Amino acid sequence: MALPDPLPIPPFTRPVRGAATLPGSKSLTNRALLLAALGNEPVTLNGALSSDDTRLMAEALRQLGFTVAADEAALTLRVSGQAAAFPGGEASLFVGLAGTAARFLTALCAAAPRGTYRIDGVPQMRQRPMQGLIEALRQLGADIRCTGAEGFFPLEIRARGLRGGEVRLDASASSQLLSALLMVAPLAAAPVTVNLVGGVRRTFVDMTLRLMAEFGLAAVPPADTARFSLAPGSYRPPCAYAVEPDATAASYFQALPLVVGGALALPGLRPPGAGLQGDSAFVDVLARVKARAAGVLLTEDFHEISDTFLTLAAIAPLLAGPTRITGIAHTRRQETDRVAGMARELQRLGQHVVETEDALEIHPRPLKAGQVITTYHDHRFAMSFGILGCHDLHRDGRPWLSIQDPACCAKTFPGFFGLLETVRRNSLGI
């Protein structure tokens, strides 16, 4: 069902209660799609996310000759037909604004034995960093041509496989650059050693390496290193793989009780350390928020879980003191400049915000009603401020905040606003 644009957010007039069932992880679904394609037998992904990003990934694999059957009602994706993949000839792949699909497919096509592949996305995708991955793949023998600006989409890849060897990779702009290279490295003709230059978000690297092991690759290197060595090998994935609920999506519903009171169960969500997703550590951030004494500055480093920083920033106007969020400079190069965008939207709501290259410091002020949040076509702005809008500012249930372009949530969580309304109605006993 189409949502109004802008979408007024109905506040909760009673504390939240009940449960909310989360979709599968986007990060895990797209990684699992790639790793399933690198095996030799059919693989069914259960609990898979159905969203714009995962549909783009699945369709690109089909264009490359794989068979990907999607049953969105059953939340399954089945990957088969690996022997028929990369038949040669040419293919054009569209990745939209999906960073995972963009980086993973670039690496996959570079590792392919044959064929010419053109990869492009929306204009905004052409501004997202690709240079580190492109340079590393070229060092391994890939023929990659940037048909626009060097280091960015669109790309043309003339596949001839990867020869292996030792490379340097700067993945400071995005851990996806390293994850993409690591997942295809076993396809090279000789061992691949990746020397990491600069920092990287280790939680996502660990997710990738642990998933590679779960998909049957032997001798997976540890994540806490600057040098990754992978020998040529084969993936032997399970015939069925269960995708975890999305820990980043969980952050919105974990924050909801701080905004409206009450408690909300999230079935199937794994606690920090029990699953593959680093963003599960957001619950620890919330624990520190709750434990803070009134008026004390809370400082949190979000470098490893930066997809969740917007969740805390959006609800910061309701907290008991100023909030400083650090480790977020790299998010200026994601779907939009998330640091600058968050500062603008909070200021629109009357907040005092100090912005630096790597941090935001938010000092609560009375909220201004009647504002429409600009989302910059970024799903995380829509969902984060959707949670703030659940606050009953007028104490009578009247909406006071609206979200522009709410449909942008289709990127990773198409049913977000529907689920939020269901939770609200359940809390009212409707």
Please tell me about this protein's structure:
The protein has 430 residues and is of the alpha/beta class. It has two domains: 200 residues, Alpha-beta prism (UDP-n-acetylglucosamine1-carboxyvinyl-transferase, Chain), CATH 3.65.10; 217 residues, Enolpyruvate transferase domain (UDP-n-acetylglucosamine1-carboxyvinyl-transferase, Chain, Alpha-beta prism), CATH 3.65.10. The chain has a four-stranded mixed beta sheet, covered by helices on one side. Strands 5-6-8-7 form a four-stranded mixed beta sheet. A four-stranded mixed beta sheet has the order 13-14-16-15, covered by helices on one side. The longest helix is centred in the middle third of the chain and has 14 residues. α9 links the parallel β13 and β14. The chain contains twelve helices and 18 strands. The two termini are 20 Å apart.
Helix/strand layout:
Elements: E1 7-8, H1 26-37, E2 43-46, H2 52-63, E3 67-71, E4 76-80, E5 90-94, H3 99-111, E6 116-120, H4 131-139, E7 143-146, E8 155-158, E9 165-170, H5 175-184, E10 192-197, H6 202-214, E11 227-230, E12 240-242, H7 247-260, H8 282-291, E13 298-301, H9 309-315, E14 323-326, H10 338-348, E15 352-355, E16 359-363, E17 371-373, H11 379-388, E18 401-403, H12 416-428
Parallel strand pairs: 2-12, 5-6, 9-10, 13-14, 17-18
Antiparallel strand pairs: 1-18, 2-4, 3-4, 6-8, 7-8, 10-11, 14-16, 15-16
Helix pairs in contact: 1-2, 1-3, 1-6, 2-3, 3-5, 4-5, 5-6, 7-8, 7-11, 9-11
